[in-house]
Amino acid sequence: MLEAGWTGSSTVPSRDLYPHQWSWDSAFIAIGLRHLSPLRAQTELETLLAAQWADGRIPHIVFNPSVPLDAYFPSPDFWRSATAGRAAGAPRTVQTSGIVQPPVHALAAWLVHLADPGLSRARGFLTRAYPRLAAWHRYLLHRRDLGGGGLVSVVHPWEQGMDNSPCWDRPLSRVTPAPARSFRRADLDHGSPEDRPTDLDYGRYVRLAADYRDRGYADGPGDFMVEDPAFNALLITSEYALARIAHELGAAGSARRTRAERLTATLVERLWDPAAGMFLCRDVRAGELVPERGVTGLVPLLLPTLPRDLAATLVRTVCGPHFGLGGSTRLVPSYDLLGEAFDPHRYWRGPAWFNTSWLLERGLRLQGERGRADALRKGILHTAGASGFAEYVDPYTSQACGATGFGWTAALTLDLLHDRAAWDRCGVTATKGEDRR
Fold first, then answer.
1. Side-chain-facing half-sphere of 346: CA atoms under 13 Å
2. What is the spatial distance between Cα 56 and Cα 85, in angstroms, rounded to a whole number?
């Protein structure tokens, strides 16, 4: 699967459904590839970072010019990055989208380095990656604090990566959808309509993206501004990784660790909901939390300085009736099993995804929940193989949905097949009991 998706410089998530390079897909793919070929894993990340904009953003898609325009929508001629993104410093030699995806990249770079430190140092991998990764984090922290409270906001559901989550329904309801006749969905050529976002959702995605493009990709107040727990938790995790990278390069990393701890406290202050027993998204424009339980609100289990009582509550929530881990489900569903909008097949409205389950396996292990982490690891490995390495699965039956032979499913399966203690040794986050409040 990873061989079939390799283009010579990066890996496509799926040859048919996603024929270009995707930002957080490449980070997860590099994490798996490091076990097979550290060089290819480094190249994967270097190809993505080469498409970075001058303002620091890493675009969510890097387009392959050899792929026909009608193979994927929105295509390069929709985004018009070289012209519409000129003021923001879009590259001239490669076509990209203008939005971003979750910042998993520094974490991936550090793990890839550890797979073969000698090769990494000989090639100057971290030396070249570090300033780009630092600029990426600077862009998010300085340009995307749209709520003024210290957290990063996403301006499009595609940026958070969980495209049609019910967590977005309330803020998306303010967006007037683009007319259906104004675009053609290429995804329905390769996926079942029952598994994909609705035409209404897609019309709103298109409208948001077009409006952002027509503003020259300038960041500022808009109809959709959401502080998301997973996006910010992954930024915090990558801040810890950047601290390790800085130390490897002979620089001080203490300021980044301090920032990561401060961001964790801010995350708790702004997004924790005691009644829900988890983190919720904040609708910045409305100035309120969105009362929907999505898997995004569990991802902060990754954070080493998360208060112990909150971590314990998150574990109870993920294993309780709303997500059912270890009971009714083997993998973590993307949305509340008891929620009115739950759908076991439709994209991020209920199915279980392998990347979020992988993140939660890591988080449970970090929080000392070794038995639960082992059970989730076993469930991921079994379900990945049985489903043909599906893009996502029905959380109850494990029936494959979306594409099969999916890139990050194969890559993260590889990672879990290798030494499960490697994460603990990588030093990205504190070990249990260290630096805890």
1. 14
2. 12
β pairing state of 282-283 and 226-227: antiparallel
Catalytic site residue from 187, 391, 394, 415: 391
Residue 424 has, within 13 A of its CA and on its CB side, a CA count of 17
Sequence-ordered alpha helix ranges (H) in 195-343? 199-214, 229-248, 254-271, 308-319
Q: Is residue 213 part of a domain?
A: yes
Question: Which domain covers residue 141, as residue numbers?
Answer: 21-320
**253 in any annotated domain:** yes
Beta carbons within 8 Å of 342's beta carbon, 6+ residues apart: 333, 335, 336, 349, 350
Total structural domains in the chain? Answer: 1
Q: What pLDDT digit, counting tens, does each position of 150-166 carry?
A: 999 999 999 999 999 99
Catalytic residue among 44, 116, 159, 163: 163
State pLDDT tens for residues 98-132. Answer: 999 999 999 999 999 999 999 999 999 999 999 99
Question: 240: which 2 tokens?
Answer: 């810890």
- Look up 336 and say whether it is catalytic: no
Span 225-258, pLDDT tens digits: 999 999 999 999 999 999 999 999 999 999 999 9
Does residue 391 have an active-site annotation?
yes
Q: Is residue 370 part of a domain?
A: no
* Residue 291 domain-assigned (yes or no): yes
Q: CATH number, domain at 225? A: 1.50.10.10
The Cα–Cα gap between 306 and 308 comes to 6
The pTM (predicted TM-score) of the whole model is: 0.95
